[in-house]
Batch of 2 targets.
Target 1
Amino acid sequence: MKREKALKPAANATSSRGDTEPRRRSDRGAETRAQLIAAALEIFGRLGYEGATTRQIAKAADANLAAIVYHFGSKEALHLAVAEHVAKSILARIGPTLASISTPEATATPEAARAALHSLVGTMVDVLLGSADAERWARFIVREQLQPNAAFDVIYGFMENAMSTALHIATVILDTPEDDEIRLRTLTVLGQVLVFRVAQTLVLRRMKWTAIGDTERAMIKQVILQNLDAILEGTKP
Amino acid sequence: MKREKALKPAANATSSRGDTEPRRRSDRGAETRAQLIAAALEIFGRLGYEGATTRQIAKAADANLAAIVYHFGSKEALHLAVAEHVAKSILARIGPTLASISTPEATATPEAARAALHSLVGTMVDVLLGSADAERWARFIVREQLQPNAAFDVIYGFMENAMSTALHIATVILDTPEDDEIRLRTLTVLGQVLVFRVAQTLVLRRMKWTAIGDTERAMIKQVILQNLDAILEGTKP
DNA sequence: GTCTATAGTCGGATAGAC
DNA sequence: GTCTATCCGACTATAGAC
Protein backbone atom coordinates (compact mmCIF):
# COMPACT_ATOMS: atom_id res chain seq x y z
CA MET A 1 0.00 0.00 0.00
CA LYS A 2 2.98 2.22 -0.02
CA ARG A 3 4.40 2.42 -3.45
CA GLU A 4 1.44 3.02 -5.70
CA LYS A 5 3.28 4.82 -8.42
CA ALA A 6 4.29 2.87 -11.49
CA LEU A 7 1.79 0.06 -11.48
CA LYS A 8 1.76 0.13 -15.21
CA PRO A 9 3.75 -2.99 -16.12
CA ALA A 10 2.41 -6.37 -14.98
CA ALA A 11 1.05 -7.25 -18.39
CA ASN A 12 1.76 -10.98 -18.11
CA ALA A 13 0.03 -11.73 -14.86
CA THR A 14 0.61 -15.21 -13.60
CA SER A 15 0.08 -18.20 -15.76
CA SER A 16 -0.48 -18.32 -19.49
CA ARG A 17 3.06 -17.53 -20.45
CA GLY A 18 4.44 -18.71 -23.72
CA ASP A 19 1.33 -17.72 -25.52
CA THR A 20 3.26 -15.52 -27.86
CA GLU A 21 5.89 -18.12 -28.61
CA PRO A 22 5.79 -21.90 -28.68
CA ARG A 23 7.15 -23.71 -25.58
CA ARG A 24 10.89 -23.74 -25.99
CA ARG A 25 13.51 -26.29 -25.13
CA SER A 26 14.37 -25.20 -21.63
CA ASP A 27 11.95 -24.96 -18.74
CA ARG A 28 14.26 -22.84 -16.66
CA GLY A 29 11.66 -20.11 -16.65
CA ALA A 30 8.94 -22.38 -15.32
CA GLU A 31 11.28 -23.67 -12.68
CA THR A 32 12.20 -20.20 -11.54
CA ARG A 33 8.54 -19.26 -11.37
CA ALA A 34 7.77 -22.31 -9.25
CA GLN A 35 10.64 -21.58 -6.91
CA LEU A 36 9.58 -17.98 -6.58
CA ILE A 37 6.03 -19.00 -5.75
CA ALA A 38 7.20 -21.51 -3.17
CA ALA A 39 9.47 -18.99 -1.52
CA ALA A 40 6.84 -16.26 -1.66
CA LEU A 41 4.25 -18.55 -0.09
CA GLU A 42 6.53 -19.16 2.85
CA ILE A 43 7.60 -15.57 3.32
CA PHE A 44 4.27 -13.87 2.66
CA GLY A 45 2.71 -16.31 5.11
CA ARG A 46 5.20 -15.54 7.82
CA LEU A 47 5.64 -11.82 7.42
CA GLY A 48 2.55 -10.70 5.57
CA TYR A 49 2.43 -8.86 2.29
CA GLU A 50 4.00 -5.67 3.53
CA GLY A 51 6.51 -7.36 5.79
CA ALA A 52 7.86 -9.60 3.09
CA THR A 53 10.46 -8.11 0.81
CA THR A 54 11.14 -9.09 -2.75
CA ARG A 55 14.81 -9.42 -1.85
CA GLN A 56 14.10 -12.06 0.74
CA ILE A 57 11.85 -13.92 -1.65
CA ALA A 58 14.33 -13.82 -4.49
CA LYS A 59 17.11 -15.00 -2.21
CA ALA A 60 15.04 -17.83 -0.74
CA ALA A 61 14.06 -18.91 -4.25
CA ASP A 62 17.67 -18.80 -5.28
CA ALA A 63 16.62 -16.44 -8.02
CA ASN A 64 17.48 -12.95 -9.02
CA LEU A 65 15.62 -9.96 -7.72
CA ALA A 66 14.66 -8.83 -11.19
CA ALA A 67 13.17 -12.23 -11.94
CA ILE A 68 10.12 -11.36 -9.87
CA VAL A 69 9.21 -8.42 -12.01
CA TYR A 70 10.08 -10.34 -15.13
CA HIS A 71 7.90 -13.33 -14.36
CA PHE A 72 5.03 -11.78 -12.49
CA GLY A 73 5.09 -8.06 -13.17
CA SER A 74 5.17 -6.83 -9.59
CA LYS A 75 5.26 -7.84 -5.97
CA GLU A 76 1.49 -7.62 -5.83
CA ALA A 77 1.02 -9.84 -8.85
CA LEU A 78 3.33 -12.40 -7.28
CA HIS A 79 1.16 -12.32 -4.18
CA LEU A 80 -1.91 -13.05 -6.26
CA ALA A 81 -0.11 -15.85 -8.06
CA VAL A 82 0.66 -17.41 -4.71
CA ALA A 83 -3.02 -17.24 -3.76
CA GLU A 84 -3.96 -19.03 -6.96
CA HIS A 85 -1.32 -21.63 -6.32
CA VAL A 86 -2.64 -22.24 -2.82
CA ALA A 87 -6.23 -22.56 -3.98
CA LYS A 88 -5.21 -25.01 -6.69
CA SER A 89 -3.05 -27.07 -4.34
CA ILE A 90 -5.72 -27.44 -1.70
CA LEU A 91 -8.36 -28.30 -4.23
CA ALA A 92 -6.06 -30.99 -5.58
CA ARG A 93 -5.90 -32.52 -2.13
CA ILE A 94 -9.51 -32.38 -1.05
CA GLY A 95 -11.02 -32.46 -4.52
CA PRO A 96 -11.15 -36.27 -4.76
CA THR A 97 -12.80 -36.60 -1.37
CA LEU A 98 -15.20 -33.82 -2.21
CA ALA A 99 -16.12 -35.51 -5.48
CA SER A 100 -16.59 -38.91 -3.89
CA ILE A 101 -19.06 -37.58 -1.35
CA SER A 102 -20.94 -35.40 -3.78
CA THR A 103 -22.59 -38.36 -5.43
CA PRO A 104 -26.23 -39.16 -4.70
CA GLU A 105 -25.19 -42.51 -3.19
CA ALA A 106 -23.06 -40.80 -0.57
CA THR A 107 -26.13 -39.19 0.93
CA ALA A 108 -28.63 -41.92 0.18
CA THR A 109 -28.97 -42.96 3.80
CA PRO A 110 -28.17 -41.22 7.06
CA GLU A 111 -25.48 -43.84 7.71
CA ALA A 112 -23.81 -43.22 4.38
CA ALA A 113 -24.08 -39.50 4.92
CA ARG A 114 -22.43 -39.77 8.29
CA ALA A 115 -19.57 -41.73 6.78
CA ALA A 116 -19.26 -39.11 4.06
CA LEU A 117 -19.05 -36.34 6.63
CA HIS A 118 -16.40 -38.24 8.56
CA SER A 119 -14.48 -38.68 5.37
CA LEU A 120 -14.60 -34.97 4.59
CA VAL A 121 -13.66 -33.80 8.07
CA GLY A 122 -10.93 -36.43 8.28
CA THR A 123 -9.51 -35.28 4.99
CA MET A 124 -9.59 -31.70 6.16
CA VAL A 125 -7.62 -32.60 9.26
CA ASP A 126 -5.10 -34.51 7.20
CA VAL A 127 -4.74 -31.75 4.67
CA LEU A 128 -4.56 -28.96 7.21
CA LEU A 129 -2.33 -30.69 9.71
CA GLY A 130 -0.66 -33.42 7.75
CA SER A 131 1.91 -31.73 5.60
CA ALA A 132 4.49 -29.04 5.70
CA ASP A 133 2.81 -27.62 2.62
CA ALA A 134 -0.46 -27.28 4.45
CA GLU A 135 1.23 -25.39 7.21
CA ARG A 136 2.32 -22.80 4.71
CA TRP A 137 -1.07 -22.71 2.99
CA ALA A 138 -2.84 -22.17 6.26
CA ARG A 139 -0.55 -19.38 7.33
CA PHE A 140 -1.04 -17.65 4.03
CA ILE A 141 -4.81 -18.01 4.15
CA VAL A 142 -5.14 -16.78 7.71
CA ARG A 143 -3.20 -13.69 6.75
CA GLU A 144 -5.67 -13.07 3.99
CA GLN A 145 -8.51 -13.32 6.44
CA LEU A 146 -6.93 -10.75 8.68
CA GLN A 147 -6.43 -8.35 5.88
CA PRO A 148 -8.71 -9.34 3.03
CA ASN A 149 -7.14 -8.67 -0.32
CA ALA A 150 -7.88 -9.57 -3.85
CA ALA A 151 -6.06 -12.76 -3.01
CA PHE A 152 -8.81 -13.72 -0.60
CA ASP A 153 -11.40 -13.96 -3.34
CA VAL A 154 -9.25 -16.47 -5.13
CA ILE A 155 -9.10 -18.66 -2.07
CA TYR A 156 -12.72 -18.30 -1.06
CA GLY A 157 -13.90 -20.30 -4.04
CA PHE A 158 -12.84 -23.70 -2.85
CA MET A 159 -13.88 -23.04 0.74
CA GLU A 160 -17.35 -22.26 -0.48
CA ASN A 161 -17.42 -25.56 -2.28
CA ALA A 162 -16.34 -27.66 0.68
CA MET A 163 -18.67 -25.89 3.08
CA SER A 164 -21.66 -26.31 0.80
CA THR A 165 -21.04 -30.00 0.45
CA ALA A 166 -20.66 -30.47 4.18
CA LEU A 167 -23.80 -28.49 4.79
CA HIS A 168 -25.84 -30.53 2.38
CA ILE A 169 -24.71 -33.77 3.97
CA ALA A 170 -25.51 -32.46 7.42
CA THR A 171 -29.06 -31.61 6.40
CA VAL A 172 -29.48 -35.17 5.18
CA ILE A 173 -28.22 -36.65 8.43
CA LEU A 174 -30.31 -34.40 10.62
CA ASP A 175 -33.21 -34.38 8.22
CA THR A 176 -33.68 -30.67 8.62
CA PRO A 177 -33.87 -27.84 6.11
CA GLU A 178 -30.82 -25.69 5.62
CA ASP A 179 -31.11 -22.80 8.02
CA ASP A 180 -28.85 -20.43 9.92
CA GLU A 181 -28.51 -22.80 12.81
CA ILE A 182 -27.07 -25.65 10.81
CA ARG A 183 -24.91 -23.25 8.86
CA LEU A 184 -23.43 -22.01 12.12
CA ARG A 185 -22.93 -25.52 13.36
CA THR A 186 -20.98 -26.36 10.24
CA LEU A 187 -18.75 -23.41 10.92
CA THR A 188 -18.11 -24.56 14.47
CA VAL A 189 -16.86 -27.86 13.09
CA LEU A 190 -14.55 -25.99 10.78
CA GLY A 191 -13.36 -24.06 13.82
CA GLN A 192 -12.44 -27.25 15.64
CA VAL A 193 -10.07 -28.11 12.85
CA LEU A 194 -8.79 -24.61 12.24
CA VAL A 195 -7.82 -23.95 15.83
CA PHE A 196 -5.02 -26.47 15.54
CA ARG A 197 -3.56 -24.52 12.68
CA VAL A 198 -4.31 -20.97 13.66
CA ALA A 199 -3.57 -21.16 17.35
CA GLN A 200 -0.86 -23.72 16.94
CA THR A 201 1.59 -21.91 19.16
CA LEU A 202 -0.97 -22.08 21.94
CA VAL A 203 -1.84 -25.68 21.16
CA LEU A 204 1.76 -26.85 21.28
CA ARG A 205 2.38 -25.15 24.58
CA ARG A 206 -0.74 -26.48 26.22
CA MET A 207 -0.26 -30.01 24.98
CA LYS A 208 3.46 -29.88 25.69
CA TRP A 209 4.07 -31.03 22.15
CA THR A 210 6.93 -29.87 20.00
CA ALA A 211 5.14 -30.48 16.73
CA ILE A 212 2.01 -32.01 15.30
CA GLY A 213 3.16 -35.30 13.78
CA ASP A 214 1.26 -38.39 12.74
CA THR A 215 0.47 -39.49 16.28
CA GLU A 216 -0.78 -36.09 17.33
CA ARG A 217 -2.81 -35.71 14.18
CA ALA A 218 -4.50 -39.05 14.75
CA MET A 219 -5.47 -38.02 18.26
CA ILE A 220 -6.83 -34.72 17.03
CA LYS A 221 -8.82 -36.40 14.30
CA GLN A 222 -10.33 -38.87 16.71
CA VAL A 223 -11.41 -36.16 19.11
CA ILE A 224 -12.95 -34.02 16.40
CA LEU A 225 -14.84 -36.92 14.84
CA GLN A 226 -16.18 -37.92 18.25
CA ASN A 227 -17.28 -34.36 18.80
CA LEU A 228 -18.93 -34.37 15.40
CA ASP A 229 -20.92 -37.49 16.22
CA ALA A 230 -21.90 -36.09 19.58
CA ILE A 231 -23.07 -32.87 17.98
CA LEU A 232 -25.03 -34.68 15.31
CA GLU A 233 -26.60 -36.89 17.95
CA GLY A 234 -27.17 -34.22 20.53
CA THR A 235 -28.80 -31.65 18.30
CA LYS A 236 -31.29 -33.85 16.54
CA PRO A 237 -34.71 -32.25 16.46
CA MET B 1 13.72 -7.86 11.00
CA LYS B 2 15.18 -5.27 8.78
CA ARG B 3 16.67 -2.51 10.76
CA GLU B 4 18.66 -4.15 13.51
CA LYS B 5 21.09 -1.33 13.97
CA ALA B 6 20.62 1.14 16.79
CA LEU B 7 18.57 -0.82 19.27
CA LYS B 8 20.34 0.93 22.07
CA PRO B 9 17.77 3.42 23.37
CA ALA B 10 14.52 2.10 24.80
CA ALA B 11 15.47 2.67 28.43
CA ASN B 12 11.98 3.56 29.61
CA ALA B 13 10.05 0.61 28.31
CA THR B 14 6.33 0.91 28.81
CA SER B 15 4.92 1.74 32.17
CA SER B 16 6.73 3.01 35.22
CA ARG B 17 7.31 6.49 33.92
CA GLY B 18 7.62 9.39 36.28
CA ASP B 19 9.93 7.49 38.53
CA THR B 20 12.58 10.15 38.17
CA GLU B 21 10.22 13.03 38.80
CA PRO B 22 6.99 13.34 40.76
CA ARG B 23 3.76 13.21 38.74
CA ARG B 24 3.30 16.67 37.36
CA ARG B 25 0.24 18.77 36.73
CA SER B 26 -0.54 17.76 33.19
CA ASP B 27 -1.27 14.27 32.00
CA ARG B 28 -0.71 15.09 28.40
CA GLY B 29 2.01 12.48 28.31
CA ALA B 30 -0.23 9.73 29.59
CA GLU B 31 -2.88 10.70 27.12
CA THR B 32 -0.47 10.60 24.22
CA ARG B 33 0.75 7.20 25.32
CA ALA B 34 -2.80 5.88 25.49
CA GLN B 35 -3.59 7.24 22.05
CA LEU B 36 -0.44 5.75 20.63
CA ILE B 37 -1.26 2.35 22.08
CA ALA B 38 -4.80 2.47 20.75
CA ALA B 39 -3.64 3.42 17.29
CA ALA B 40 -0.83 0.89 17.33
CA LEU B 41 -3.21 -1.89 18.38
CA GLU B 42 -5.39 -1.18 15.38
CA ILE B 43 -2.58 -0.83 12.88
CA PHE B 44 -0.35 -3.65 14.11
CA GLY B 45 -3.39 -5.89 14.10
CA ARG B 46 -4.31 -5.07 10.55
CA LEU B 47 -0.91 -4.86 8.93
CA GLY B 48 1.33 -6.85 11.22
CA TYR B 49 4.44 -5.64 12.91
CA GLU B 50 6.50 -5.20 9.78
CA GLY B 51 3.66 -3.85 7.70
CA ALA B 52 2.75 -1.15 10.16
CA THR B 53 4.76 2.05 9.99
CA THR B 54 5.45 4.36 12.84
CA ARG B 55 4.32 7.25 10.69
CA GLN B 56 0.89 5.70 10.22
CA ILE B 57 0.61 5.03 13.91
CA ALA B 58 1.65 8.52 14.91
CA LYS B 59 -0.78 10.05 12.46
CA ALA B 60 -3.67 7.85 13.58
CA ALA B 61 -2.90 8.71 17.20
CA ASP B 62 -2.80 12.37 16.29
CA ALA B 63 0.65 12.46 17.79
CA ASN B 64 4.06 13.32 16.60
CA LEU B 65 6.35 10.76 15.06
CA ALA B 66 9.06 11.40 17.61
CA ALA B 67 6.58 10.77 20.40
CA ILE B 68 6.81 7.03 19.79
CA VAL B 69 10.50 6.92 20.50
CA TYR B 70 10.11 9.35 23.35
CA HIS B 71 7.41 7.39 25.15
CA PHE B 72 8.31 3.82 24.30
CA GLY B 73 11.87 3.80 23.08
CA SER B 74 11.32 2.07 19.75
CA LYS B 75 8.75 0.57 17.43
CA GLU B 76 9.39 -2.84 18.96
CA ALA B 77 8.88 -1.58 22.49
CA LEU B 78 5.60 -0.02 21.41
CA HIS B 79 4.56 -3.38 20.02
CA LEU B 80 5.27 -5.03 23.34
CA ALA B 81 3.38 -2.32 25.20
CA VAL B 82 0.37 -3.04 23.01
CA ALA B 83 0.59 -6.72 23.89
CA GLU B 84 0.59 -5.87 27.58
CA HIS B 85 -2.36 -3.58 27.08
CA VAL B 86 -4.30 -6.32 25.29
CA ALA B 87 -3.55 -8.90 27.96
CA LYS B 88 -4.64 -6.51 30.68
CA SER B 89 -7.81 -5.51 28.85
CA ILE B 90 -8.94 -9.05 28.23
CA LEU B 91 -8.19 -10.12 31.75
CA ALA B 92 -10.28 -7.23 32.98
CA ARG B 93 -13.21 -8.58 31.00
CA ILE B 94 -13.02 -12.27 31.73
CA GLY B 95 -11.31 -11.98 35.10
CA PRO B 96 -14.52 -11.66 37.10
CA THR B 97 -16.09 -14.68 35.41
CA LEU B 98 -12.90 -16.63 35.83
CA ALA B 99 -12.77 -15.79 39.51
CA SER B 100 -16.40 -16.67 40.09
CA ILE B 101 -16.00 -20.13 38.65
CA SER B 102 -12.69 -20.83 40.32
CA THR B 103 -14.32 -21.29 43.69
CA PRO B 104 -14.78 -24.77 45.13
CA GLU B 105 -18.57 -24.30 45.09
CA ALA B 106 -18.57 -23.78 41.36
CA THR B 107 -17.34 -27.32 40.82
CA ALA B 108 -19.02 -28.92 43.79
CA THR B 109 -21.51 -30.84 41.65
CA PRO B 110 -21.57 -31.79 37.99
CA GLU B 111 -24.59 -29.52 37.52
CA ALA B 112 -22.81 -26.54 39.03
CA ALA B 113 -19.72 -27.34 37.00
CA ARG B 114 -21.73 -27.42 33.81
CA ALA B 115 -23.23 -24.04 34.62
CA ALA B 116 -19.75 -22.71 35.32
CA LEU B 117 -18.50 -23.95 31.97
CA HIS B 118 -21.45 -22.36 30.20
CA SER B 119 -20.69 -19.14 31.99
CA LEU B 120 -17.06 -19.20 30.90
CA VAL B 121 -17.75 -20.08 27.27
CA GLY B 122 -20.57 -17.56 27.13
CA THR B 123 -18.31 -14.86 28.47
CA MET B 124 -15.68 -15.76 25.93
CA VAL B 125 -18.17 -15.42 23.11
CA ASP B 126 -19.32 -12.09 24.45
CA VAL B 127 -15.81 -10.79 24.93
CA LEU B 128 -14.51 -12.04 21.60
CA LEU B 129 -17.52 -11.11 19.50
CA GLY B 130 -19.25 -8.48 21.52
CA SER B 131 -17.17 -5.37 21.22
CA ALA B 132 -15.19 -3.39 18.74
CA ASP B 133 -12.29 -3.56 21.17
CA ALA B 134 -12.34 -7.33 21.09
CA GLU B 135 -12.13 -7.29 17.34
CA ARG B 136 -8.87 -5.43 17.59
CA TRP B 137 -7.55 -7.61 20.39
CA ALA B 138 -8.29 -10.75 18.44
CA ARG B 139 -6.63 -9.50 15.30
CA PHE B 140 -3.56 -8.55 17.24
CA ILE B 141 -3.39 -11.90 19.02
CA VAL B 142 -3.85 -13.95 15.89
CA ARG B 143 -0.99 -12.04 14.33
CA GLU B 144 1.18 -13.03 17.23
CA GLN B 145 0.30 -16.65 16.72
CA LEU B 146 1.31 -16.49 13.09
CA GLN B 147 4.60 -14.94 13.90
CA PRO B 148 5.35 -15.55 17.55
CA ASN B 149 7.28 -12.72 19.10
CA ALA B 150 8.20 -11.68 22.55
CA ALA B 151 4.75 -10.15 22.59
CA PHE B 152 3.18 -13.59 22.42
CA ASP B 153 4.56 -14.59 25.79
CA VAL B 154 2.88 -11.62 27.35
CA ILE B 155 -0.46 -12.67 25.95
CA TYR B 156 -0.08 -16.36 26.63
CA GLY B 157 -0.31 -15.85 30.36
CA PHE B 158 -4.00 -15.13 30.60
CA MET B 159 -4.91 -17.74 28.00
CA GLU B 160 -3.15 -20.34 30.10
CA ASN B 161 -5.24 -19.28 33.04
CA ALA B 162 -8.59 -19.51 31.28
CA MET B 163 -7.75 -22.83 29.64
CA SER B 164 -6.63 -24.40 32.91
CA THR B 165 -9.82 -23.36 34.63
CA ALA B 166 -11.97 -24.73 31.83
CA LEU B 167 -10.02 -27.94 31.84
CA HIS B 168 -10.43 -28.44 35.53
CA ILE B 169 -14.17 -27.92 35.34
CA ALA B 170 -14.45 -30.35 32.46
CA THR B 171 -12.68 -33.07 34.41
CA VAL B 172 -15.20 -32.60 37.19
CA ILE B 173 -18.16 -32.88 34.85
CA LEU B 174 -16.83 -35.91 33.05
CA ASP B 175 -15.30 -37.37 36.16
CA THR B 176 -12.12 -38.25 34.31
CA PRO B 177 -8.49 -37.48 35.01
CA GLU B 178 -6.85 -34.72 33.03
CA ASP B 179 -5.35 -36.34 29.96
CA ASP B 180 -4.45 -35.43 26.41
CA GLU B 181 -7.91 -36.27 25.15
CA ILE B 182 -9.73 -33.84 27.37
CA ARG B 183 -7.08 -31.22 26.77
CA LEU B 184 -7.69 -31.56 23.05
CA ARG B 185 -11.40 -31.38 23.52
CA THR B 186 -11.04 -28.15 25.43
CA LEU B 187 -9.09 -26.75 22.52
CA THR B 188 -11.81 -27.75 20.07
CA VAL B 189 -14.29 -25.73 22.10
CA LEU B 190 -11.96 -22.77 21.95
CA GLY B 191 -11.82 -23.29 18.21
CA GLN B 192 -15.58 -23.08 17.91
CA VAL B 193 -15.46 -19.61 19.38
CA LEU B 194 -12.32 -18.49 17.62
CA VAL B 195 -13.49 -19.36 14.14
CA PHE B 196 -16.04 -16.56 14.29
CA ARG B 197 -13.26 -14.08 14.92
CA VAL B 198 -10.46 -15.50 12.85
CA ALA B 199 -12.38 -16.57 9.79
CA GLN B 200 -14.88 -13.78 10.08
CA THR B 201 -14.64 -12.83 6.44
CA LEU B 202 -15.65 -16.37 5.55
CA VAL B 203 -18.35 -16.47 8.21
CA LEU B 204 -19.98 -13.26 7.04
CA ARG B 205 -20.03 -14.41 3.45
CA ARG B 206 -21.46 -17.80 4.21
CA MET B 207 -24.10 -16.52 6.58
CA LYS B 208 -24.87 -13.58 4.32
CA TRP B 209 -24.41 -11.29 7.29
CA THR B 210 -22.89 -7.86 7.11
CA ALA B 211 -21.67 -7.85 10.69
CA ILE B 212 -21.88 -9.81 13.89
CA GLY B 213 -24.27 -7.83 16.07
CA ASP B 214 -26.22 -8.76 19.18
CA THR B 215 -28.65 -11.03 17.35
CA GLU B 216 -25.94 -12.89 15.53
CA ARG B 217 -23.86 -13.24 18.67
CA ALA B 218 -26.80 -14.70 20.54
CA MET B 219 -27.32 -17.29 17.82
CA ILE B 220 -23.66 -18.19 17.83
CA LYS B 221 -23.60 -18.53 21.58
CA GLN B 222 -26.63 -20.78 21.56
CA VAL B 223 -25.16 -23.07 18.95
CA ILE B 224 -21.81 -23.34 20.70
CA LEU B 225 -23.35 -24.04 24.10
CA GLN B 226 -25.56 -26.72 22.57
CA ASN B 227 -22.50 -28.25 20.98
CA LEU B 228 -20.73 -28.12 24.30
CA ASP B 229 -23.53 -29.98 26.03
CA ALA B 230 -23.65 -32.54 23.26
CA ILE B 231 -19.92 -33.09 23.49
CA LEU B 232 -20.02 -33.43 27.25
CA GLU B 233 -22.90 -35.85 26.96
CA GLY B 234 -21.62 -37.79 24.01
CA THR B 235 -18.10 -38.37 25.26
CA LYS B 236 -18.88 -39.56 28.73
CA PRO B 237 -16.88 -42.65 29.59
C1' DG C 1 15.97 -15.34 -19.40
C1' DT C 2 19.14 -13.82 -16.10
C1' DC C 3 22.05 -10.69 -14.22
C1' DT C 4 24.25 -6.03 -12.06
C1' DA C 5 23.72 -1.44 -11.10
C1' DT C 6 21.01 2.22 -9.87
C1' DA C 7 17.08 5.47 -9.59
C1' DG C 8 13.58 7.07 -6.72
C1' DT C 9 11.02 6.44 -2.44
C1' DC C 10 9.97 5.41 2.25
C1' DG C 11 11.32 3.43 6.57
C1' DG C 12 12.88 4.01 11.76
C1' DA C 13 15.52 6.71 14.49
C1' DT C 14 17.88 11.11 15.92
C1' DA C 15 19.13 16.06 17.08
C1' DG C 16 18.00 20.02 18.91
C1' DA C 17 14.67 24.13 19.02
C1' DC C 18 10.80 25.35 21.71
C1' DG D 1 6.81 16.74 26.38
C1' DT D 2 6.25 18.02 21.73
C1' DC D 3 7.75 19.47 17.51
C1' DT D 4 10.46 20.02 12.74
C1' DA D 5 14.08 18.75 10.04
C1' DT D 6 17.11 15.34 8.69
C1' DC D 7 20.07 11.17 8.37
C1' DC D 8 20.77 7.06 6.18
C1' DG D 9 19.71 2.26 5.45
C1' DA D 10 16.53 -0.67 2.88
C1' DC D 11 12.82 -1.00 -0.13
C1' DT D 12 10.54 -1.78 -5.10
C1' DA D 13 11.07 -1.27 -9.67
C1' DT D 14 13.83 -0.16 -13.81
C1' DA D 15 17.50 -0.04 -17.42
C1' DG D 16 20.44 -2.24 -20.02
C1' DA D 17 24.58 -5.54 -20.47
C1' DC D 18 25.14 -10.33 -21.28
Note: Chain B has a mean pLDDT of 87.
Target 2
Amino acid sequence: MSEFQSRVLKLVSMVPRGKVTTYKELALALGRPRTCRAVGNALARNPNPVIIPCHRVVRSDGKIGGYKFGERKKAKLLLMEGVMIKNGKVYLQNFLTKLPKSR
DNA sequence: CCTGGGGCAGCCG
DNA sequence: ACGGCTGCCCCAG
Protein backbone atom coordinates (compact mmCIF):
# COMPACT_ATOMS: atom_id res chain seq x y z
CA MET A 1 0.00 0.00 0.00
CA SER A 2 1.26 3.45 -0.90
CA GLU A 3 2.16 6.18 1.52
CA PHE A 4 -0.66 8.30 0.17
CA GLN A 5 -3.25 5.60 0.67
CA SER A 6 -2.19 4.75 4.18
CA ARG A 7 -2.37 8.41 5.16
CA VAL A 8 -5.88 8.64 3.76
CA LEU A 9 -7.06 5.49 5.50
CA LYS A 10 -5.51 6.55 8.77
CA LEU A 11 -7.42 9.82 8.76
CA VAL A 12 -10.66 8.13 7.82
CA SER A 13 -10.34 5.69 10.68
CA MET A 14 -10.46 8.68 13.02
CA VAL A 15 -13.96 9.68 11.99
CA PRO A 16 -16.30 8.63 14.80
CA ARG A 17 -19.69 6.95 14.49
CA GLY A 18 -22.40 9.41 13.73
CA LYS A 19 -20.06 11.83 12.03
CA VAL A 20 -18.74 12.22 8.52
CA THR A 21 -16.03 13.97 6.60
CA THR A 22 -15.60 14.80 2.94
CA TYR A 23 -13.15 13.94 0.21
CA LYS A 24 -12.07 17.53 0.13
CA GLU A 25 -11.58 17.77 3.89
CA LEU A 26 -9.35 14.76 3.70
CA ALA A 27 -7.36 16.31 0.89
CA LEU A 28 -6.96 19.49 2.92
CA ALA A 29 -5.98 17.59 6.05
CA LEU A 30 -3.31 15.88 4.01
CA GLY A 31 -2.02 19.27 3.00
CA ARG A 32 -2.86 18.57 -0.63
CA PRO A 33 -6.01 20.47 -1.47
CA ARG A 34 -6.27 19.30 -5.04
CA THR A 35 -6.12 15.59 -4.44
CA CYS A 36 -9.77 15.07 -3.60
CA ARG A 37 -10.34 12.75 -6.49
CA ALA A 38 -7.24 10.77 -5.74
CA VAL A 39 -8.55 10.46 -2.19
CA GLY A 40 -11.68 8.85 -3.56
CA ASN A 41 -9.54 6.40 -5.45
CA ALA A 42 -7.57 5.54 -2.36
CA LEU A 43 -10.81 4.82 -0.49
CA ALA A 44 -12.17 2.75 -3.35
CA ARG A 45 -9.21 0.44 -2.90
CA ASN A 46 -9.76 0.22 0.81
CA PRO A 47 -8.29 -3.16 1.71
CA ASN A 48 -10.50 -3.63 4.77
CA PRO A 49 -13.96 -2.03 4.59
CA VAL A 50 -14.83 -3.64 7.90
CA ILE A 51 -12.41 -1.72 10.07
CA ILE A 52 -11.96 1.31 7.84
CA PRO A 53 -15.22 3.25 7.67
CA CYS A 54 -14.95 4.79 4.24
CA HIS A 55 -18.75 5.09 4.16
CA ARG A 56 -18.27 8.09 6.46
CA VAL A 57 -16.77 10.08 3.63
CA VAL A 58 -19.24 12.07 1.55
CA ARG A 59 -19.06 14.80 -1.05
CA SER A 60 -18.39 18.34 -0.03
CA ASP A 61 -21.89 19.40 -1.09
CA GLY A 62 -23.38 16.81 1.25
CA LYS A 63 -24.37 14.27 -1.37
CA ILE A 64 -23.56 10.70 -0.49
CA GLY A 65 -21.01 10.03 -3.16
CA GLY A 66 -19.76 6.73 -4.46
CA TYR A 67 -19.27 3.52 -2.56
CA LYS A 68 -17.89 0.13 -3.43
CA PHE A 69 -21.08 -1.63 -2.39
CA GLY A 70 -23.49 0.98 -3.71
CA GLU A 71 -24.72 4.34 -2.54
CA ARG A 72 -27.82 2.77 -1.01
CA LYS A 73 -25.69 0.74 1.33
CA LYS A 74 -23.61 3.74 2.22
CA ALA A 75 -26.67 5.80 3.10
CA LYS A 76 -28.08 2.92 5.09
CA LEU A 77 -24.92 2.61 7.15
CA LEU A 78 -24.87 6.33 7.83
CA LEU A 79 -28.49 6.31 8.92
CA MET A 80 -27.83 3.42 11.26
CA GLU A 81 -25.06 5.44 12.81
CA GLY A 82 -27.32 8.36 13.42
CA VAL A 83 -26.34 10.63 10.55
CA MET A 84 -29.37 12.41 9.17
CA ILE A 85 -29.89 12.42 5.43
CA LYS A 86 -32.49 14.51 3.65
CA ASN A 87 -33.06 14.47 -0.09
CA GLY A 88 -29.93 12.45 -0.56
CA LYS A 89 -27.80 14.87 1.37
CA VAL A 90 -26.09 14.88 4.74
CA TYR A 91 -26.34 17.99 6.86
CA LEU A 92 -22.66 18.69 6.89
CA GLN A 93 -23.05 21.59 9.26
CA ASN A 94 -24.21 19.23 11.98
CA PHE A 95 -22.33 16.05 11.22
CA LEU A 96 -19.00 17.06 9.81
CA THR A 97 -16.10 16.13 12.03
CA LYS A 98 -12.94 18.13 12.22
CA LEU A 99 -9.81 16.33 11.18
CA PRO A 100 -6.33 16.90 12.52
CA LYS A 101 -3.80 18.31 10.10
CA SER A 102 -1.68 15.42 9.02
CA ARG A 103 1.79 16.67 8.14
C1' DC B 1 -30.49 19.51 -12.81
C1' DC B 2 -26.40 19.08 -16.18
C1' DT B 3 -21.90 20.38 -18.26
C1' DG B 4 -16.89 21.23 -18.99
C1' DG B 5 -12.46 21.79 -17.26
C1' DG B 6 -9.18 21.07 -13.63
C1' DG B 7 -6.63 17.78 -11.06
C1' DC B 8 -3.94 13.65 -9.47
C1' DA B 9 -2.80 8.73 -7.57
C1' DG B 10 -2.86 4.20 -9.45
C1' DC B 11 -2.93 0.91 -12.92
C1' DC B 12 -1.72 -0.96 -17.35
C1' DG B 13 0.61 -1.49 -21.68
C1' DA C 1 10.64 5.10 -17.26
C1' DC C 2 6.58 7.08 -20.03
C1' DG C 3 2.19 8.19 -21.77
C1' DG C 4 -2.94 7.17 -21.46
C1' DC C 5 -6.93 6.30 -19.03
C1' DT C 6 -9.92 5.85 -15.09
C1' DG C 7 -12.27 7.24 -11.00
C1' DC C 8 -16.31 6.82 -4.02
C1' DC C 9 -14.24 14.59 -6.72
C1' DC C 10 -14.75 19.88 -7.02
C1' DC C 11 -16.20 24.21 -8.78
C1' DA C 12 -17.94 27.65 -11.78
C1' DG C 13 -21.48 28.41 -15.03
Note: The beta strands of chain A are 21-22, 57-58, 85-86, 89-90.
